[in-house]
Amino acid sequence: MLVGREMTVDEVIKEVLRDKVFYETSGGGVTLSGGDPIVQHIFSRELLKKCKAIGLHTAIETSANCQWRTLASLLPVIDLVMMDIKHINLEKHGNATGVSNAKILENAVQLSKANKPLIVRVPIIPGINDSAGEVEAIAEFVQEFPNLQYLELLPFHRLGEGKYFALGLEYPASHLVTPAKDKMKELARAARKKGINVHEN
Amino acid sequence: MLSVYYNMTKEIAELTFNQRLEALRETKMQQTREKQEVLLVMDQDDHGRIMPPPELREITEYMGPSGEMVRDAKLNNFKPKSNHPSGGFFGPKACGENFNLFLKAHPVYINSMSSLVGGYMAYFMGYRNLGWPPELVSNLEEEQRKYGIYSGIGATQHFCQDMTIGFKLGWGGLLKKIRHYKKVNPDKADFYDGLEQVILGVQEWMSRHIEAAHEMAKGEKNPTLRRNLEEMAEINEWLLAKPPRTFREVCQWIVWYQMIARMYNGSGSMGQIDVWLEPYYERESAAGTLTDEEAIFHLACLLLNDTQYFQLGGPDAEGKDTTNKVSFLVLESVHRLKAPANIGVRVFDGLDPELLRKSVKIMFEDKTGFPKFLGDKGLVEGFVKNGYSVQLARQRIYSGCHWFAIPGREYTLNDCVKINFAKVFEVAFWEMMNDPNVEPCVDELWRRFERHLNRAVEVTKEGLDFHMKHMHQVFPELVLDLLSYGPIEKGLDASNRGFEYYNLCIDGSGLATVADSFAAVEQRVEKEKRLTWLQLAEHIKNDYKDMEKVRLMLYNVPRYGRGGTRADDWAVHIVQAFTRFAKEKPTPVGFNVIPGLFSWASMISMGQTIGTTPNGRHAYAPISHGANPDPCFLKGGSAPTAMAVAVASVQCGYGNTAPLQLDMDPGLARGEDGLAKVEALIKGHFEMGGTMINMNVIDKKQILEAHKDPSKYPNLIVRVTGFSAYFASLSKNLRQLVVDRILSEET
Fold it and tell me: Could you give the CA distance from residue A82 to residue A151 in angstroms, rounded to a whole number?
């Protein structure tokens, strides 16, 4: 292991409970992010189970690029799912991310039937999916989801650049800039045409 | 006599309040720049003080009210009369008479854009070339120096008057009261003479303003300003002797009082402005004689005059929320001013949620470190442990940097008395290392630290008794006495049993420095045996010279603030010991003592008295800030919540504060729930027993640029500790501390 430290579920719970009062005052809870919690889904399930047992609200942020049964195994101990959809088009998704979006979209459909609040997030990457057409297509895909809380558009940022530098790696997105506010508003308008709730971050 | 008259316009059309406020803001910026040029640095509150005109200016240095040296400009047309062989002046009669003469020498100041006359230019304390008669010796100096004690002997103000006494009586009524009780207590004639001289002085000063305002009105071409000058003359003619009748007159009365309180001995205490002004506002609004815009303007003019300490909202004695329309008008006026302001919102379960929401919104929108947040639960539950009722505890009002006092009834010496924990640690460490009969170990170090801390508290208590015995003979609280219950009636100064309640504040400083030091020696020397005690002592003697690896090894132990670490345990241990020693008995004479944690802005000067410490701190570097963990205590984690938990865990718990200093990234409040999250953080800290939050919302890039060249950001305001100030006015050292804090915090 190059970085980080190994912890047991109980050790994590101890850290989590330090902020207990803030969960109460904010109505918030514990969100597993990453990375991706599905990569360590067994640990994630055990941790989330303990969180639920002590009355905490739980959520995961995930790419949902996995077998459905992996995601399904977490559902009983999750109160909220936040997942990313970057592209509806299979080829474009593959070109941009290196992986297919087939499982992601299937899992999204399955999640829409799972009776858990769902937030779908779209990281807006210049030159990849920052057009009204692309965003509308995603909005259309999710518009009938009965459990959709909202579609959230997240502008690309370069905060990850420091990590690449620290690891001695080249930052492949160095030529990209954060989309302008006006652009984000335009994309949000396009998505709202499908009659869904859209948040801009 | 010189009058300083500002008129920023040749405009002859009627002026709106907004235009006038813009002109007043511009004047404030000019005056601030002038102060920076003349005084070079101001490592203290940004006061509303104006520079004396060049022909009256004399530069000086003296010990300020918070125990730090200040560079200042005096009025050269006033020389006090001495009544002591040393050349100084002491006692109520001499202090009152000299203050009267000082006010006589003070120029008139009128800015015709403002709806209130008056501005102050000098500090009376600057003329006290001797702060304490040399024949009054405590014999405590050696131990005070040994433990780095700021003793509070000779300290002034730092408690709160009750302004409503002044609103009821006016200057004339106060004079009548003094003369009446002088007949009742003829043996206290000197004290009453002193009080009388203060009032006569302020009335004479007011008279010159009235005359000047009439004169200026004659020559004023702008109709708004001419009318304004005439109104100000009439208002002050009334207020010469009579109590204020209207919202504007109350604001004007406050201006006079706050100026003489500040000039006399640095007092900035005020209190519940929203409660005082509510009846006037309601009456005049209903009658149609006061609009909200006008009220906001008068409040802005009041706040521009000086940066006093006010409380908004909070429970009354019976627990009902005092928030009213004026609370929001005060917030709005500071929001429009965008100048330093020291106003706190008292957060409790019953607080109007809109007031809290608006406060947080302004904090993130304006980024001026305004307002502060006050934790009612910790304050009240703590204070009752001293044997007081909940009703009384609720009447303790925010009126100073990090402190509260019962207006007009409680003498506190808040923020004047400090024990430097790091100095105590240094004493204990070297005593242990130099003792050939003992094997150094952490237990032994702790035993000695405890013993010396106990002794430091004892020495401090003895010093407090010495102060209480003599202060009234030296420099009595003549201005604060005027608006208090007891001093005029009994003929006894506030510091001399004139009050009903005495709860003397002792603050500890340098907590993180010591907690981290204990943790470092425990882990690296005792448990891991990476170095021996002798090696550690050698490195400390040499200030880690050529031993950066060792220094970093000690620096990088899990630190106080991280949560669940040995350093966190040590921090709690230290505070529990300090609290126990403070509370187990009163001062020898019998005054109750209440502990807290605070360093004001003294981290630099306190650090300069201490050598290297085992937490990796270099010799003479600043010590830690108040109750806060040292910067960079948490890598990759959520610093605001971690700090909120840490500082809540080290509250002394008897009603005085251990403030949390939070420097937040503007991005924290972004998004739909951003403000709600910040509110949750505030409420969470107070739910855990926290007592005060001082907050900054500041962009890291901007603060770095401002630190390189402060002149690029002349309007940048930061909450340094309990007070706020223009960043450009601070010394480089104090700016560095603020920058270090901000850079280290992650969201």
Answer: 10
Per-residue HEC secondary structure of chain A comes to CCCCCCCCHHHHHHHHHHCHHHHHHHCCEEEECCCCHHHHHHHHHHHHHHHHHCCCEEEEEECCCCCHHHHHHHHHHCCEEEEECCCCCHHHHHHHHCCCCHHHHHHHHHHHCCCCCEEEEEEECCCCCCCHHHHHHHHHHHCCCCCEEEEEEEECCCCCHHHHHHCCCCCCCCCCCCCCHHHHHHHHHHHHCCCCCEEEC
> Contact B170/B244 with Cβ under 8 angstroms?
yes
What residues of chain B lie within 8 A of the CB of A15, using their CB?
563-564
pLDDT computed for residue A10 by the predictor: 95
Among A201, A65, A195, CA closest to A139: A195
DSSP H or E stretch at residue B501: strand B501-509
Residues in B closer than 8 angstroms to A19, CB to CB, are 638, 641, 645, 684
Instruction: Give the number of other CB atoms < 10 A from CB of residue A143.
Output: 15
Report the chain B residue with the minimal C-alpha distance to residue A21.
Answer: B684
ipTM of this predicted complex?
Answer: 0.78
Beta bridge partners of B397: B405
CB-CB under 8 Å, B563 with A15:
yes
Strand partners, A57: A29
Which residues 653-672 of B are in CB contact (within 8 Å) with A?
670-672
Give the pLDDT score at B745. 59
Name the residue with tokens 């009220």: B295
Higher pLDDT, A105 or A28: A105
Beta strands in B354-480 (DSSP E): 372-375, 397-400, 403-405, 410-411, 418-420
User: CA B210, B214, B219: angle at the middle one, nearest 5?
Assistant: 145
Q: Quick check: B78 and B293 in contact, CB under 8 A?
A: no
The strand pairing partners of A83, in sequence order, are A62, A120
Residue B4 and residue B214 in contact, taking contact as beta carbons nearer than 8 Å: no
pLDDT for B730 equals 86
pLDDT at B746: 42
Q: Do A15 and B671 touch (CB under 8 A)?
A: no
Among A18, A24, A27, select the one facing B645 at the smallest CB separation: A18
Q: How far is A198 from chain B (nearest CA, A)?
A: 12
Across the interface, whether the CB atoms of A19 and B688 are under 8 A apart is answered no
Nearest CA in chain A to B639: A19
Vertex A32: Cα angle to A29 and A33 (nearest 5): 130
pLDDT band (50, 70, 90) for residue A92 = confident
Residues of B in contact with A14 (CB under 8 A): 564
CB within 8 Å: B687 and A25? yes
* Three-class SS of B268-298: CEEECHHHHHHHHHHHHHHHCCCCHHHHHHH
* Cβ neighbour number for residue B114 with a 10 Å cutoff: 26
- The pTM is what? 0.91
Q: How confident is the model at residue A169 (pLDDT cuts 50, 70, 90)?
A: confident
Q: What is the Cα–Cα distance from A142 to B714, expressed in whole angstroms? A: 50
- Residue holding tokens 């290392």? B433
Rounded Cα gap, residues B487 and B501, in angstroms: 12
The span from the CA of B544 to the CA of B521, in Å, is 15
Token output for B439 = 């094997």
Angle at A55 between CA A53 and CA A61, to 5 degrees: 90
Dihedral through CA A32, CA B636, CA A15, CA B689, nearest 10?
Answer: -120
Per the model's pLDDT, the better-predicted residue between B595 and A160 turns out to be B595
Amino acid in the structure at residue B147: Y
Residue ranges of chain B with pLDDT lower than 50? 746-747
Residue in the structure block whose two tokens are 């360590």: A40
Render B521-548 in DSSP notation, one character per residue.
Answer: IIIIIIIS-SS-HHHHHHHHHTTTTT-H
Residue range B631-656, pLDDT digits in tens: 888 876 558 999 999 999 999 999 99
